[in-house]
Structures
1.
Amino acid sequence: MRTNKQDTPQTTPRRSDEPIWWSLFSAGGVCVAMLVPAIALLVLLGIPLGLVSAEQLSYQRLHALVFHPLGLGVVLGALVLPLFHAMHRIHHGLHDLKLAHGQLAKWLCYGSAIVLSTVAIALWLLSAF
């Protein structure tokens, strides 16, 4: 009995990096869905209705909040995750339109999200000093 390599089934499936990109996509969508309405309510309704005073949103207080370690996590989430969300949508939109072939579109989309995130974080950190 002779066996060929073609006759033997592949036992291990090919690993994919899609779960990583989908998790960043999901986290970015949740981040935007939670932060944008909260900020809009705070600024657009809270201040005019007198629920939030101008002193509570002063530059010094917001600066201290944004550069606090907990504020750092919120700012990083608000900067980085929506970029990955948008680039994942763009990548799959290009794929649906049959414009993204192979790894080039993936590297361009996710690479630009990484580069833009790095630039945003660097500019944010430079503004601290």
Note: The radius of gyration is 22 Å.
2.
Amino acid sequence: MILEVVILDVIPSREKEFESAFVEASSIIASMAGYASHQLQHCLEKQNRYLLLVQWETLEAHTVGFRGSNEYQEWKKRLHHFYDPFPAVEHYEMIFENPK
């Protein structure tokens, strides 16, 4: 499993608009092959910062499958205009997990 991690800085005062657009756009990413789950978290210290975490079965499911799809073009259209600056995307794989 691959974890996509993205820090999203939204244009100040557009946070609620972004949150609504994100909820609506969530069905796009959730419909993709190789998608497992995603969550959006809001930063407590910076009002306009969010953390997007997406679980993919493989790196290619995100970088080739999703980003190369027509669905990604719709995702971009709905969400990318909220970001300033444009976010960097990183991918991680699990090395160790300590179950409770």
Note: The chain has a mean pLDDT of 98.
3.
Amino acid sequence: MGTEDAIKAEIEEMGRLTQEQEDILYNISLKQDELGRESTNLLMEKLKGSPIYEPMIEREYLTYDVFNHGGKHEIACLYVTLKGLRYCIMFADELAARRKVDAAGAPRQAS
């Protein structure tokens, strides 16, 4: 489990996630916060080897379970880890400002 100090040290060493990765992580974390431990589903073929998702999994910001209900496609159920949530909290002001809608779902006012 990553503490804030450990996350800061990791960021100094490896850098922050890309803006696209941060936006994905933040959006998944908001969904989990709103709906409980509700996963975000993605086809495994889109997850494995992805330059967007793999680094977040390797750095333990995201985790996933895999299921297949008899179909030919495996589904990855993505979850933000506690470390990922701490990352989002650390940069929440910046991440929230990039969203097109506010916390209530209303379009952001141009400033």
Note: DSSP finds six helices and three strands in the chain.
4.
Amino acid sequence: MEFTKGENRFYKEEDGKLLAEITFVPNDNVVAIDHTFVDPSLRGQGIAEQLVDTVVEDMEKQGKKIKAVCPYVVELFDRKSDKYKTIKVEA
């Protein structure tokens, strides 16, 4: 799925309806992902992880790290620690 980059967020809208969104708060060289949303009609398709991966790719290009604040991202970073170990900062 393709996401649109907004101010401190990536999101997907269709016909004016928000379908998926991830928001983050920048702070120097670390961003804190604080919110992830996926519309119930799209859940179970890996879209939340795609959102996280979109932020990861963007922050890697910028040379920044990610602090997981959103409970989903905390759990994802723990569950797939090898995948995210180079981008993640400890709380």
Note: Residues 47-62 form the longest helix (16 residues).
